[in-house]
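Anyone up for a design puzzle?
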């Protein structure tokens, strides 16, 4: 049976040039859900979303290119399917189409971490201070502003492992004199290397096995006003020679364990190694493995089941 067309009025299209669509949200008895879906698709629905699928009621949203006649369609449904309950309620709403290229940006807003760190996407930040060689401080808030494009490599500050690594790094740099250099292993977006530079470390090296991540580091460093940018190296930790007074590695535990000898060797005697990306259940094995490599636990940070360790090489 073909459902009746609604009688009170026809759907009205959007005005020329308007980039909109319409939502029709209905509250239904479970027995009506399937037939209401058929009815809506017969009347031009482009898709549907089930909002509530349990209990004595169903709440369903259908999407249309033109305005639906909520009241008229409910009446037409009741006439077409007299053996099932008509919708208890139906409401039409006009919605603006969000460009998919930029709609995701709503999820990335400025994020405060630690004492002074402020991680912000480029569309929330003002123009970078091109002359910055030290901390990029907001005069109004005393914040160290790190600008990261979340469309780039891993590391925006929103994942607990990155947030913990940033806080552990800031904590390690609460000293009268910053270390001369920093190595960021598995740099991703470069957020840790950039944070170290902004917190006063004169030189940073960013290492990643993925060559495509390295241009992202340069872009994010420029957005954050960091000059000179971190040095870039593609490869695994064993490709480097020498040692650094401060090393950070925000990588999964399996990689941290596999490269513990390399990471220990890249940490200068008396230097600090910060490890993140560690689940709570993996903590003990990491601490013990690195103790055997000559690095001992100095401090740890924990959040949402994740751990960041600050180790000191004897």
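Challenge accepted. My sequence:
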């Amino acid at each position: 049976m073909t459902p009746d067309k609604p009688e009170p009025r026809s759907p009205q299209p959007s005005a020329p040039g308007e980039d909109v669509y319409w939502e029709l949200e209905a509250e239904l008895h479970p027995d009506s859900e399937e037939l209401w879906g058929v009815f809506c698709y017969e009347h031009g629905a482009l898709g549907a979303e089930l909002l509530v699928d349990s209990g004595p009621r169903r709440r369903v949203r259908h999407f249309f290119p033109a305005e639906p006649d909520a009241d008229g369609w409910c009446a037409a449904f009741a006439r077409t399917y007299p053996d099932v309950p008509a919708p208890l309620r139906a409401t039409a709403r006009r919605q603006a189409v969000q460009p998919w290229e930029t709609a995701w940006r709503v999820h990335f807003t400025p994020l405060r971490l630690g004492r002074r760190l402020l991680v912000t996407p480029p569309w929330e930040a003002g123009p970078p201070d091109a002359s910055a060689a030290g901390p990029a401080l907001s005069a109004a808030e005393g914040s160290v502003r790190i600008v990261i494009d979340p469309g780039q490599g891993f590391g925006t500050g929103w994942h607990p492992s990155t947030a913990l690594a940033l806080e552990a790094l800031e904590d390690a740099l609460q000293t009268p004199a910053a270390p001369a250099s920093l190595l960021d292993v598995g740099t991703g977006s470069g957020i840790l290397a950039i944070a170290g530079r902004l917190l006063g470390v004169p030189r940073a090296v960013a290492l990643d096995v993925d060559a495509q991540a390295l241009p992202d580091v340069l872009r994010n460093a420029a957005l954050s006003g960091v000059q000179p940018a971190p040095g870039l190296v593609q490869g695994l930790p064993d490709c480097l020679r020498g040692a650094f007074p401060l090393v950070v590695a925000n990588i999964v535990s399996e990689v941290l364990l596999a490269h513990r000898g390399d990471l220990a060797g890249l940490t200068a005697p008396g230097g600090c190694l910060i490890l993140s990306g560690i689940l709570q259940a993996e903590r003990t094995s990491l601490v013990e493995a690195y103790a055997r490599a000559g690095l001992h636990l100095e401090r740890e940070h924990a959040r949402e089941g994740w751990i960041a360790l600050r180790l000191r090489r004897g």
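A detail worth pointing out: Residues 1-17, 127-140 have pLDDT under 50 and may be disordered.
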